[in-house]
């Protein structure tokens, strides 16, 4: 064989290598050592080994395909760096988070020990340029959201609030000094952020109906009001608070630091979804914040909306991850569970559910991939992000309910790793704009008429 055909053969082989499987094997055995040993075998020994390893089917036995929710091989569209990050995040989620996810969710506690380990992945603020951030693309950000949510939607929400909403507010609306102060430490996850927009009496209508006020007194701003649902707020080092200026009527943003005596964050108890996320009711009572901690580039609600446009795409990806986790766990279960003497995966009605699930999941993944490409191309508009959020959060609800259905009673037990996704899909459905609000945004874009109540 000529050297050229050997090289060609090697390149062809490399194209076929499944990096996921390779990474999974590498976790179990020292691949380098194995390769070294195999390299020392002579032809006869190699032939014997191949015979031993050959997976010839015995009569009546058939090889089952791997469990993989990436049906259209989107991972092949990723470049080497993106793929490396995907596998790194997947390994972290499967090794560090999967074993503890149900326990923390059940106890409604947050696993703080995970933060330094997660920081080592170097993925916070992944798409931002400068300030210690990796300056990658939005496709990578989307893939990360999917990988995290595929194992634990709570952890992906914690991460989305920190990296997307809080860091994003500072990145898009902060002054140079504010970015220099906060972003490098937040990228290293040494400082954690939260984002306070929603209020007890105003959710969807927040753009026009914000009750929290700010008033300038000398070089201080005085904040009064309440915020509801604020993720990470019980332990965050900085909470971005949005408030309406009593003088100009415009919405402004503030960086409220941990320890501010007139800022109180109380954990919201008894949630039925995202139980690991620490959501809080925040009360601001004559809370004094210096002018230097006002987000200098946030002038009206339009600036707040810029942050939401960027993060809404991430929420659509989160829905994809939630759906993928439920689908993969349910598929695995149906291949093992036997009834009437056969795996339930072999029944037509069960396969119908599985096919509905993978069809919806594949459409969501391909849609989100294009969404992130548009974000990278700088052509993403509110209505694009809203459409993805609407369709993905709706389809996810359908997928998780089918996942639960094909598992019978075990579908509602945490230990089978689908029940948590069923509950968490409900939170994704409501936050970052409900179905109705995002539909109104898309409706306005395609008809030219605003159906929002003014
Ligand atoms: C788990 C979780 C985490 C969250 N984290 C955060 C956070 O970190 N920071 C933050 O600021 N917020 C957060 N939120 C708040 C979230 O963004 C709001 O819940 C969301 O915007 C909806 O507001 P609401 O719950 O007050 O519902 P409402 O606005 O009261 O809506 C109730 C219903 O009325 C419908 N509706 C409202 N207006 C219209 C209309 N014009 N036409 C038709 N239907 C309408 C809605 O679609 C919905 O079905 C979180 C929420 C949840 C559930």
What does this structure look like?
The longest helix has 36 residues, at 301-336. It is globular and about 85 Å long. The chain folds into three domains: 74-192, Butyryl-Coa Dehydrogenase, subunit A, domain 1 (Orthogonal Bundle), CATH 1.10.540.10; 194-293, Butyryl-CoA Dehydrogenase, subunit A, domain 2; 307-447, Butyryl-CoA Dehydrogenase, subunit A, domain 3, CATH 1.20.140. It has helices at residues 3-16, 19-28, 31-39, 43-53, 80-107, 114-119, 138-151, 153-173, 176-187, 206-209, 301-336, 348-377, 382-405, 419-430, 435-447; strands spanning 193-196, 213-217, 220-231, 238-245, 251-257, 263-267, 279-290, 338-339, 342-343. The termini are far apart. With 454 residues, the protein is α+β, with helices and mostly antiparallel strands. The protein has 15 helices and nine strands. Helix 8 runs antiparallel to helix 9 (176-187), helix 11 (301-336) runs antiparallel to helix 12 (348-377) and helix 11 (301-336) packs parallel to helix 13. The strands form two sheets. Strands 1, 2, 3, 4, 5, 6 and 7 form a seven-stranded mixed sheet that branches. The structure holds flavin-adenine dinucleotide. Flavin-adenine dinucleotide (FAD) binds at residues 161, 195-198, 203-204, 229-231, 274, 279, 427, 430-432, 434, 436-437, 452-453.
Hetero groups in this structure are: flavin-adenine dinucleotide
CATH class of the largest domain: Mainly Alpha
**Global outline:** globular
CATH-derived topology of the largest domain: Butyryl-CoA Dehydrogenase, subunit A, domain 3
CATH architecture of the largest domain: Up-down Bundle
- What is the H/E order? HHHHHHHHHEHEEEEEEHEEHHHH
Class by alpha and beta content: alpha+beta
How far do the termini sit from each other? 76 Å
CATH superfamily of the largest domain: Butyryl-CoA Dehydrogenase, subunit A, domain 3
Q: Flag low-confidence runs.
A: none
How many domain units?
3
Number of extended strands:
9
């Amino acid at each position: 064989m000529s050297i050229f055909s050997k090289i060609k053969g090697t390149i062809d082989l490399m194209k076929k290598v499944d990096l996921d499987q390779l990474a999974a094997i590498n976790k179990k055995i020292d691949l380098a050592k194995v390769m070294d040993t195999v390299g020392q075998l002579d032809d006869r020994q190699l032939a014997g080994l191949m015979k031993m390893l050959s997976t010839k089917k015995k009569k009546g036995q058939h090889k089952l395909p791997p469990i993989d929710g990436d049906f259209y091989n989107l991972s092949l569209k990723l470049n080497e760096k993106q793929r490396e990050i995907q596998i790194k995040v997947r390994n972290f989620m499967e090794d560090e988070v999967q074993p503890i996810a149900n326990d923390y969710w059940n106890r409604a506690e947050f696993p703080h020990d995970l933060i330094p380990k997660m920081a080592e992945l170097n993925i916070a603020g992944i798409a931002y340029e400068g300030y210690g951030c990796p300056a990658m693309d939005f496709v990578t950000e989307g893939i990360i959201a999917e990988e995290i949510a595929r194992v634990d939607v709570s952890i992906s929400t914690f991460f989305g609030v920190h990296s997307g909403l809080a860091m994003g507010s500072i990145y898009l609306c902060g002054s140079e000094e504010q970015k220099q102060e906060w972003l490098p430490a937040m990228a290293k996850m040494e400082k954690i952020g939260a984002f306070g927009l929603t209020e007890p009496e105003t959710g969807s209508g927040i753009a026009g109906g914000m009750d929290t006020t700010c008033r300038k007194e000398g070089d201080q701003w005085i904040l009064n009001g309440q915020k509801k649902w604020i993720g990470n707020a019980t332990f965050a080092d900085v909470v971005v608070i949005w408030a309406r200026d009593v003088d100009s009527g415009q919405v402004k943003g503030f960086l409220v630091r941990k320890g501010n005596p007139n800022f109180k964050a109380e954990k919201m108890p008894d949630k039925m979804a995202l139980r690991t996320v620490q959501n809080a009711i925040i009360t601001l009572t004559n809370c004094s914040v210096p002018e230097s901690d006002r987000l200098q580039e946030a002038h009206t609600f339009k600036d707040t909306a810029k942050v939401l446009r960027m993060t809404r795409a991430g929420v659509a990806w989160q829905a994809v991850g939630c759906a993928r986790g439920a689908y993969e766990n349910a598929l695995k279960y149906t291949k093992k569970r036997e009834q009437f003497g056969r795996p339930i995966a072999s029944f037509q009605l069960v396969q119908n559910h599985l096919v509905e699930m993978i069809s919806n999941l594949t459409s969501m993944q391909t849609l989100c991939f294009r969404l992130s490409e548009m974000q990278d191309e700088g052509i993403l508009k509110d209505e694009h992000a809203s459409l993805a959020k609407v369709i993905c959060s709706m389809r996810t609800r359908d997928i998780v309910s089918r996942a639960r259905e094909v598992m019978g009673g075990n579908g509602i037990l945490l230990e089978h790793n689908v029940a948590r996704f069923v509950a968490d899909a409900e939170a994704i459905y409501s936050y970052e704009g409900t179905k109705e609000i995002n539909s109104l945004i898309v409706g306005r874009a395609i008809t030219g008429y605003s159906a929002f109540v003014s």
